[in-house]
Write a structure and sequence with these properties.
The complex is a heterodimer. The mean pLDDT of chain A is 96. Helix content of chain A is 33%, strand content 18%. A 9-stranded mixed β-sheet of chain A has the order 3-2-4-7-1-8-11-10-9. A two-stranded antiparallel sheet of chain A has the order 5-6. Chain A has helices at 24-39, 65-68, 88-101, 121-124, 138-154, 160-172, 189-194, 222-227, 256-269, 274-277, 290-297, 306-312, 337-353; strands spanning 5-12, 48-52, 79-82, 107-115, 197-199, 202-203, 212-221, 233-242, 280-282, 366-373, 378-385. Chain A is an alpha/beta fold. Chain B has one domain (1-351): Peroxisomal Thiolase, Chain A, domain 1, CATH 3.40.47. The radius of gyration of chain B is 19 Å and the shape is globular. By secondary structure, chain B is an alpha/beta fold. In chain B, the strands form 2 sheets. A 10-stranded mixed β-sheet of chain B has the order 3-2-4-7-1-8-12-11-9-10. A two-stranded antiparallel sheet of chain B has the order 5-6. Classes of the chains: A alpha/beta, B alpha/beta.
């Protein structure tokens, strides 16, 4: 529904890393300029700017879009700031798309970033609140018991998590933007299984890094997309779903909000069999075991069977899998939190544009971008295709 | 464009400190109130969108807990902006324009009593060059007021008259925080807080929440014979660097007003988000309004200022008066940032 919308430009800041020595303004400007270059347009061609990032506590600036208005050429333009927890990068892209789909705007810039080195995410996620027990666990401590429950239910082999992490880190070697570029010789299952246990059952090697970085996209209507210098990625569907963190009978391993979000985005994009109809997916996997969990949640595998896909190499580009997941290296290889969702969406778009370089999935026509946040309760997804639907 | 109306509105009482009530309880009150006005359940609402600020409550993801107030089981289509909820309304309005929704519930909340608001707002500034100097929000507003006085665009008596009018208008609103009868002389006799601002030129610190329900014409006509339709809406931002801006004007308001089509007809009422008295005068000028428009019949932000939801409240206040037939055409306005950096303007019309 709505007017057609396409991704016509994609830009990322310099390679993601622990500390990028640029101001926040410099970071977002760089990603945005790269996206404009790809789209073959200038700052003046942008009608509105939609920016997203995770909690303001991650940098210590309240509503930083006000300060970033100058760096993003927003003088006299509409500017919006989205914040939907970890899914924000995806949600921001979806809000930007609705600017075009509504027919109100012709061409918009959307940016997401995180500069984790400005503050400390663990602290930011653990501030003491009145009337609430204090949980100083960060994200890993929160998700570990859920992963443990998945392992109990499925009786999956204990090394599946490490296999996911290894696969993504190998993928990352093909992506010049990825934070984690490990020595190829060190990428062995033995090394990964020996890695320090952080939050049982999550090992250090199975956790996303803490990164700085920004990602940007230029979205345009059909008319402008057809005139853009590089191939557009057409948006076939977008969906967002939320549910509360806790309630009785909540299914935390296979959240209802994720199932419904996928159902909605597939319906819009005309996808009936995700494993067959989708050529590749960039899925938010910050802790390794979330790959098999999301394979099931997103309908790529039956409930309880997701780990078998991982084990068989079906999600690996290197092993010639039929449904490569996270060929960019995924969140496990770069995690500027607020941008991570947008990177998933942008990498999916790059693939259907055939512009993914060494990490290109051959013949990719349809791709899924996915992000989640909070206590695995906020979901945002889009399906992009090489042809207009 | 699909025609979109505001068909329900609720606001908590505007109070300095709501005590042990948390964000969820504040939101619950208004969300339940707007649903009840229409006998709506979550099934009747296609999209939810909210505005809030993590720093007011001192916790990352303040809006996550607020989700509990919605009873989002089964899961809902939902989004959030770290802005005044007037921008959440804008997002919802776009969503309705795409055809993905026919109804939307929009809410915003701010429990400002939990911290020192002017200091918290200092953290909005450029973190490398301005924030370390620690100018607070009142001092920055004072700079703007002084610039207006120096330019001869306003007088201190004009500012006092804005306060006098706000306090008088607020008498008609039982839940307003500050109200009463004052003379300009009385107000001018008060001491300065941060020159040239007196305490009454500044907004009170308020705890509260507000919510509205948006709907397409088809849905709206089921509830009210006469509805308040959003016939124009636009928002703009300008430079964050105060030194590069003309603080005695509001360029972003002018652009948004032109985009929303304010000048296309007579404006009966305007609810302006002017936290400081001089900003009411500045906005009136930037919006091209004259004395035939009744400004801030609710009392405005000087009578109670729910951070992150004051702009949204303005939509509700204008819509309510249009639905009742007290006005035909009104302007709702929201602002964000130091010295009116970002502004949203909408025109609402009765049909």
């Amino acid at each position: 529904m709505g007017n057609a919308c396409a991704v016509v430009g994609i830009g990322q800041s310099e390679r993601y890393k622990t500390k990028i020595k640029k101001s926040m303004a410099g970071l977002v400007r760089e990603a945005a300029q790269n996206a404009l270059n790809d789209a073959g347009c200038a700052w003046a061609d942008i009608d509105a700017v939609i920016i997203g990032k995770a909690p303001d506590f991650f940098e210590g600036v309240v509503m930083p879009e006000l300060y970033l208005a100058d760096a993003l050429g927003c003088h006299g333009k509409p500017m919006m700031r989205v914040h939907t927890a970890g899914s924000v990068g995806g949600s921001t892209a979806i809000v930007a798309a609705s600017h075009i789909q509504s027919g109100v705007f012709k061409r918009v810039l959307t940016v997401a970033y995180e500069k984790q080195s400005e503050s400390n995410a663990m602290w930011a996620l653990s501030t003491r609140q009145p009337f609430q027990p204090h949980l100083n666990a960060g994200a890993g401590g929160f998700f570990a018991p859920i992963i443990r429950e998945y392992m109990r239910r499925t009786q999956a082999p204990l090394d599946i998590g490490c296999k996911v992490a290894l696969k993504d880190r190998k993928h990352a070697l093909k992506n010049p933007h990825a934070h984690m570029h490990e020595d190829a010789d060190a990428l062995t299952l033995e090394n990964y299984m020996d890695s320090m246990m952080l939050w049982d059952p999550i090992r250090y090697a199975e956790v996303c890094p803490s990164s700085d970085g920004a990602c940007a996209m230029v979205l345009a209507n059909e008319d402008l997309a057809k005139k853009s210098p590089n191939k557009p990625a057409w948006i076939h569907g977008t969906a967002m779903k939320s549910e509360p963190t806790m309630y009785p009978w909540r299914e935390e391993v296979n959240p209802q909000a994720g199932i419904l979000c996928a159902k909605e985005v597939y319906a819009q994009a005309g996808i009936t069999n995700p494993r067959k109809d989708i050529d590749m997916a960039e899925v938010y996997v910050p802790f390794s075991w979330y790959e098999p969990m999301w394979l099931e949640n997103l309908g790529f595998a039956e409930v309880g069977e997701g780990w078998k896909l991982t084990e068989s190499g079906a999600t690996s580009l290197d092993q010639g899998g039929d449904i490569p997941w996270n060929v960019s290296g995924g969140v496990l290889s770069s995690n500027p939190i607020g941008a991570s969702g947008m990177i998933r969406f942008a990498e999916a778009a790059l693939q259907v544009r055939g512009m993914a370089g060494e990490r290109q999935v051959p013949g990719c026509k349809t791709a899924l971008g996915h992000a989640y946040g909070g206590g695995a309760q906020f979901f945002s997804m889009w399906i992009v295709g090489s042809e207009k639907r | 464009m699909r025609e979109v109306a505001i068909i329900a509105y609720a606001q908590t009482p505007l109070v300095r400190d709501c005590g042990s009530k948390n964000d969820v309880e504040l939101v619950m009150e208004v969300v339940h109130a707007v649903k009840k006005q229409l006998n709506f359940t979550n099934k009747d609402i296609d999209f939810f969108c909210s505005g809030s600020c993590d720093y007011l409550g001192g916790s990352a993801f303040a809006f996550v807990n607020a989700l509990d107030a919605l009873g989002a089981v089964p899961p809902i289509n939902e989004s959030h902006v770290e802005m005044d909820a007037a921008w959440a309304l804008y997002e919802a309005w776009l969503k309705i324009q795409t055809g993905h929704a026919n109804t939307a519930l929009v809410y915003g909340f701010g429990k400002c009593s939990q911290g020192d608001l002017p200091d918290v707002l200092t953290l909005q500034l450029d973190p490398y060059y301005t924030q370390p100097l620690w100018p607070d929000s009142i001092s920055l507003a004072a700079l703007q007021a002084q610039a207006l006085l120096d330019a001869g665009k306003i007088t201190e008596a004009d500012m006092a008259r804005v306060v006098q009018q706000s306090r008088a208008n607020a008498k008609a609103k039982p839940t307003a925080q500050l109200k009463g009868d004052f003379t300009v002389e009385q107000l001018l006799a008060e001491p300065k807080l941060v020159s040239p601002l007196r305490r009454h030129d500044c907004p009170p610190v308020t705890d509260g929440a507000s919510a509205v329900i948006l709907a397409t014409r088809e849905v709206a006509e089921r509830f009210h014979k006469r509805n308040a339709y959003i016939t124009g809406i636009d928002h703009r931002i300008e430079s964050h660097q105060l030194g590069t801006r003309d603080l005695t004007d509001s360029l972003s308001t002018r652009l948004a007003a032109a985009g929303a089509g304010v000048a296309k007809g007579k404006v009966d009422i305007a609810e302006l988000h002017a936290p400081f008295s001089h900003q009411s005068l500045l906005l009136k000028q930037a919006l091209g309004l004259d004395d035939s428009t009744k400004i801030n019949p609710s009392g405005g932000a000087l009578a109670g200022n729910i951070m992150m939801s004051q702009g949204l409240s303005n939509f509700g206040e204008v819509a309510q008066r249009i639905i009742k037939g007290e006005a035909n055409r009104g302007v709702a306005h929201a602002t964000s940032g130091a010295c009116l950096q970002q502004n949203l303007v909408a025109v609402l019309e009765g049909k």
